[in-house]
Amino acid sequence: MIGGARVRLNRWQQAAVAVGSAVGALLDPRRADLIAALGETTGKPAFERVLRRMKSSPEGRAILLEQPRVISANVGHAWDLPANTFGAAYAKFMGSRNFSPDDRPPVRFMETDELAYVAMRAREVHDFWHTLFGLPTNLMGESALKVIEFQQMYLPMCLMSVVGGSVRFNEKQRKLFFQHYFPWAIRAGMQCTDLMCIYYEKHFHEDLEDVRRKWGITPAPSVAKQTQA
Prior knowledge:
Layout: H1 11-27, H2 32-42, H3 44-55, H4 58-66, H5 72-75, H6 86-96, H7 113-124, H8 126-133, H9 139-153, H10 156-168, H11 171-191, H12 208-214, H13 222-225
Helix pairs in contact: 1-2, 3-7, 6-8, 9-10, 9-11
């Protein structure tokens, strides 16, 4: 099941996993496995909508047909691309944080292989979105990206993550987030193209600013970038 074993849950089990994952993720936001489980157990209707949109888009259909995976074996060439390209910017983002594209947890709770792939794709393109929007990986940057993800996919997990993240802000961070990150993220999510219908790997060789313009992406404001981590 996209790198892991499928686990079939009845409605009560699904609710139990969702509640347990939500509580655990609030206590420790670094637990990617809990955040993933929360997204899967609460996100089926959202992933079904994304699947329909992908099927209606030429590039989305190509993604569903070929089912590319964002793993080292497939994206490693990005590290060799010219500095101005989208691929090189992604490689710099990953390398500067010592991230690996192979670290994403597997999908376990989707009912069909097609939905499982959509969920996995959403998980794996997350770092492409960080790169394109110029967002840091600190709590504010992740919360801002979750605002955009919610507008793109309407995943309940994204909304819960924003609420949970804002609770953990100190007063200064909360003011910065709601004065600068949040309104920018609302605008950015509304203005950009359907991010799940982009075959990012086929655009690695293109200029970063060119793809941003093509996809209607507005990078994070400079005030936000001062807090990068």
